[in-house]
Write a structure and sequence with these properties.
Structural class: alpha/beta
CATH topology of the largest domain: Rossmann fold
Number of strands: 13
Strand order of the largest sheet: 4-3-2-5-6-7-12
Bound molecules: nicotinamide-adenine-dinucleotide
Order of helices and strands: EEHHHEHHHEHEHHEHEHEHHHEEEHEHE
CATH architecture of the largest domain: 3-Layer(aba) Sandwich
Number of domains: 2
CATH superfamily of the largest domain: NAD(P)-binding Rossmann-like Domain
Oligomer: single chain
CATH class of the largest domain: Alpha Beta
Strand content: 15-25%
Radius of gyration: 22 Å
Largest sheet: 7 strands, parallel
Length: 444
């Protein structure tokens, strides 16, 4: 009799998380400080890590009737929150307390309780160039003759942090601003060509790529929280493989796109047609200000638009999804700060083509949704590294708007398939049966 689980394999060899784990964040803005302050608040019992799979999630093992449902953090060996040390870079020389207070995501009452801790985290000077983020300017930046020199300086920063904080392992997560839209070109194709490009200050090499290169060279896993091209290029994939380092990206899946990847798979599951999906947002944080620049918006737009095509598969279901109209707008509206509002108008059709509409008005908090994603990525990327996994970690697609994947496949955007993939990967690593949900054995 077939069962609802697929055969188990040998458990993977996973190094234990000994010592401290360093978390390095290029960009200490709203998301990064909400994440850091949140971890410290949780460590002190001032709040709960809501939204984090590694802290609150469970995983079913074996048959439903076995009733084995451990916490994920008890099932795989993850670093403990108490072992995390934080550092980062920013173009503003502002400690994490001032930055968090400026962004206003967390209440002063909470920030004041952890003030000395946050004040102790000051950014290192950034690799920055206004050409790639038009709406920003900062003075806390590195100076070097070439991008090659700048990459070397970031590598030195990483080593200094490793020694000073006495960490045994590191993970880097890009929490910097969204850069202008770049597409892969010749200089991105090989590692050798990319390194020449660094030396010659090639304009297709953006600052985020310099951080990614430095991280990989230093053997540090890299996750990309913005839609920037960054490490989604053959040259840096080559380096990740060479250095045996795991990578993942792009663009944290929060807010409106999270909703889209929850609702769209449901419509498709019931074969409900779609004629149009109009999404608009107002937000007033610095991210919103950066995205007000058409070149940065283009990078975000591409990331947000790709989701529906992949979930709905119009080429397989032309009667339902061919030619649906999809529009995404982001409007910078300062009074809202980080408390974004996202509206969706969805025009659908059912039996015999009769039209219907769905309206979603999501009053969300961007950084509150992003912070647990940063935490999970840090802990899972460290797990991947200790397990010897290298290159693209597609099992972490769950966290991204534009998941990186092998060139031979399309990205998986359906949140529920992504979650199954993530949990089956954990089962696989532990030599547990994978879950297929067949379930015929319960009716023998
Ligand atoms: N908040 C969300 O829900 C969410 C979701 C998906 C993606 N993102 C992306 O995450 C990133 C961070 O978002 P945020 O809301 O914290 O933005 P933010 O503007 O508050 O923070 C970004 C920080 O990066 C700094 N920065 C810019 N370029 C840099 C560089 N080259 N080196 C070092 N620092 C640099 C800026 O000075 C700023 O402090 C953005 O790219 C955003 O698009 C956010």
């Amino acid at each position: 009799m077939a069962t609802s689980t697929a055969q188990r394999g040998e458990p993977a060899r996973i190094e234990e998380p000994q010592g401290k784990l360093g978390v390095l964040l290029p960009g200490l803005g709203a998301v990064a400080t909400t994440f850091i302050a949140g971890v410290e608040a949780v460590r002190r019992g001032l709040g709960q890590p809501i939204g984090s799979l590694t802290q609150m999630g469970t995983i079913r093992l074996g048959k439903r009737s076995d009733k084995r449902v451990p916490m994920i953090r008890d099932f795989v060996p993850l670093a403990s929150l108490n072992d995390l040390e934080f550092g980062g870079w920013d173009i503003r020389d502002e400690d994490c307390y001032s930055s968090a207070a400026h962004h206003g995501v967390l209440e002063p009452r909470l920030l004041d309780q952890i003030r000395p801790f946050l004040e102790g985290i000051r950014p290192m000077p950034a690799v920055f160039n206004r050409y790639y983020v038009k709406r920003l300017d900062g003075t806390h930046v590195k100076k070097g003759k070439s991008n090659w020199d700048l990459a070397r300086m970031v590598q030195d920063d990483i080593e200094r942090f490793r020694v000073e904080k006495k960490v045994s392992r590191l993970v880097m997560v890009w929490c910097g601003s969204t850069e202008i839209f770049l597409q892969p070109e010749a200089v991105h194709q090989t590692l050798e060509g990319f390194e020449c490009g660094l030396k010659e200050n090639h304009p297709a090499i953006a600052p985020s790529m310099i951080y990614a290169y430095a991280a990989l060279k230093s053997g540090v896993p890299f996750a990309n929280g913005a839609p920037n091209l960054t490490l989604d290029i053959p040259a840096l994939m080559e380096l990740a493989k060479q250095q045996q380092v795991p990578v993942c990206g792009k663009d944290f899946k929060t807010g409106q796109t999270l909703m889209k990847t929850i609702v769209a798979p449901g419509l498709k599951a019931r074969l409900i047609g779609l004629s149009g999906w109009f999404s608009t947002n107002i937000l007033g944080n610095r991210d919103g200000e950066v995205l007000d620049d058409p070149e940065s918006f283009k990078t975000k737009e591409e990331s947000k638009l790709s989701v529906l095509e992949h979930i709905l598969q119009p080429e397989i279901y032309p009667e339902l999804y061919k030619d649906f109209y999809h529009k995404v707008r982001i409007n910078y509206y300062p009074p809202r700060g980080d408390n974004k509002e996202g509206w969706d108008n969805i025009d659908i059709f059912g039996w015999l083509g009769y039209p219907m509409q769905i309206k979603i008005d999501f009053l969300c908090r961007d950084s509150i949704l992003a912070a647990p994603i940063v935490l999970d990525l840090v802990l899972f990327m460290d797990l991947a590294k200790r397990t010897g996994m290298r290159g693209i970690q597609e099992w972490l697609s769950f966290y991204f708007k534009s998941p990186m994947c092998a060139p031979s496949v399309y990205p998986e955007h359906d949140l529920f398939i992504q979650l199954m993939k993530l949990k089956n990967t954990l089962r696989y690593l532990r030599g547990e049966d994978l879950i297929t949900h067949l379930g015929l054995e319960y009716y023998d």
